[in-house]
Write a structure and sequence with these properties.
The protein folds into three domains: 6-113, Jelly Rolls; 125-252, Jelly Rolls, CATH 2.60.120.10; 256-353, Rhodanese-like domain (Oxidized Rhodanese, domain 1). It has 13 helices and 21 strands. The protein is α+β, with helices and mostly antiparallel strands and 354 residues long. The chain has helices at residues 26-35, 111-124, 128-131, 137-144, 154-163, 218-223, 244-250, 252-255, 261-269, 280-285, 299-302, 320-331, 342-353; strands spanning 6-8, 37-41, 46-48, 56-62, 64-69, 74-78, 96-100, 104-110, 165-169, 174-176, 184-190, 193-198, 204-210, 215-216, 230-233, 237-243, 258-259, 273-276, 292-293, 311-315, 335-339. The strands form five sheets. Strands 17-21-20-18-19 form a five-stranded parallel β-sheet. A four-stranded antiparallel β-sheet has the order 1-2-8-4. It has a four-stranded antiparallel β-sheet with strand order 3-7-5-6, with no helix packed on it.
């Protein structure tokens, strides 16, 4: 691109005639438009080279673009033609080079974002009887917009929707009780919940409020430990729940990444941020020097303070708490890896190597 290029926003309705954007719902088309950019680019500017494996989708909205193949032959794509309805040289690696033949207006966005939104639409279009939840497509789209689906394979997402059970709840109803065994993972569709914990002194602490779209219950399923808080409905509402075995099979593997110490060292060398998710007292008694302390207990409060553009590595003593932390961070769209077996496993491997 050149310094003379001008960038502007685009209205979603301008995308409606492009392929395969013409198959998308209005809501997802609007989301794509918010992530797209439109540039006014001078004639003779290179857009991409033959053999590139970039992740950008290009459409020509005004002007002309010339595509040059390996045989040296040129093909001109003019805005407003049938050819211009399709992305430029979309096959990767690119089979042609592309540059502007005239001053041109070019639409660009990530092919990953396009694929994600197309997947959402296709999943939401599944017949209600196939989903087996009795839920409408609007709710399905709301579920799929949760950040966890950024990393969840489409097949897993489909199976999850098929296996989720709708549960109505009334104000004051206890959904999870502190100390009980984990049995379900929940998504809150309607209503509001409070998250409460009883301390050793018997005092009840209100930790958080959950609103529509929030999820909960994963900690006990991953750690195989008792529930660490009580969830109480503050209003009447509706929940979607997924059984433990389905959760462990469909959600945990894609969203929870483990790494051996050697791989962690490479991640840290690449400037990943190391987080110790043990308590402050544990951290004070001994921790990896380059780490930051982010106790699992306060993880939900820290999401807004973390940089979503950075990669994170989390650890604890055994890997149990860090596994939960990694899953929670992944749910919220962070790129995160957990140290396998934690500090205990690291020490054991070091002893065995001597």
């Amino acid at each position: 691109m050149t310094a003379d290029s001008q960038i502007s926003a685009i209205d979603a309705h301008l995308l409606r005639d492009l392929v395969p954007l013409n198959t998308m719902s209005d809501g997802n088309l609007q989301i794509l438009a918010s992530h797209a950019r439109v540039e006014r680019i001078a004639a003779g500017t290179s857009l991409f080279q033959r053999g590139d494996r970039d992740r950008t989708v290009f459409y020509v909205l005004e002007g002309e673009v010339v595509l040059t193949g390996g045989d040296g032959r040129d093909r001109r794509i003019a805005a407003g033609t049938e050819d211009a309805r399709y992305a430029l040289a979309q096959l990767k690696p690119r089979q042609t080079s592309g540059k502007t033949a005239t001053d041109a207006t070019i639409l660009q966005f990530s092919d990953e974002e396009l694929d994600r939104l197309l997947t959402w639409d296709q999943l939401a279009g599944i017949e209600v009887e196939e989903i087996e939840t009795g839920e409408d497509s609007e709710w399905i789209m709301q579920v799929l917009r949760n950040p966890i689906f950024d990393r969840l394979p489409a097949a897993n997402a489909t199976a999850m929707l098929q296996r989720m059970e709708a549960v109505s709840a009334s104000a004051g109803q206890v959904i999870l009780r502190q100390g009980d065994a984990g049995d379900y993972y929940y998504l809150l569709r309607e209503g509001h919940c409070s998250v409460e914990r009883q301390g050793l002194d018997g005092k009840l602490e209100i930790l958080n409020q959950l609103d529509p779209g929030d999820q909960f219950g994963e900690e006990a399923l991953i750690s195989d430990a008792p529930r660490n808080a009580t969830i109480v409905m503050k209003t009447d509402g509706q929940l979607m729940r997924l059984g433990k075995q389905d959760f462990l099979a469909l959600l945990e593997p894609p969203l929870l990444q483990w790494a051996e110490p050697a791989e962690v060292e490479k991640l840290l060398a690449a400037e990943a941020i190391l987080l110790d998710v043990r308590t402050r007292d544990e951290y004070a008694r001994g921790a990896v020097k380059t780490s930051r302390n982010l106790p699992l207990l306060r993880m939900h409060e820290a999401f807004a303070a973390l940089d979503p553009t950075r990669r994170y590595v989390v650890y604890c003593d055994t890997g149990r708490r860090s596994g939960v932390a990694a899953f929670l961070l992944s749910q919220h769209g962070f790129d995160v890896t957990a140290l396998k077996d934690g500090l205990v496993g690291l020490q054991q491997r070091q002893k065995a190597a001597k």
